[in-house]
From TrEMBL:
Phylogenetic placement of the source organism: Archaea, Methanobacteriati, Methanobacteriota, Stenosarchaea group, Halobacteria
This protein's name: Putative nickel-responsive regulator
The organism of origin for this protein: Haloferax massiliensis
One BP annotation, GO: regulation of DNA-templated transcription
UniProt gene name: nikR_3
Amino acid sequence: MTEYTTVSIPKELAARVDDTIEGTTFSSTSDLVRFLLRSIVIQHERSGGDLSESEFQEIAEQLTDLGYLR
């Protein structure tokens, strides 16, 4: 069984996330956050453990192009 923890984000950001996931397959802020964190961790692991700011930006751009971020 998977155990979970709580991550806090500002309410303003949560509202923006709600707007962002509207019309996507994500059913909640938690779904999007899990997806984004997995994507970043996978990219980080593939790059040998060093994720630069430009690589992070590239991930964000890819997610924007896919419609997950605005």
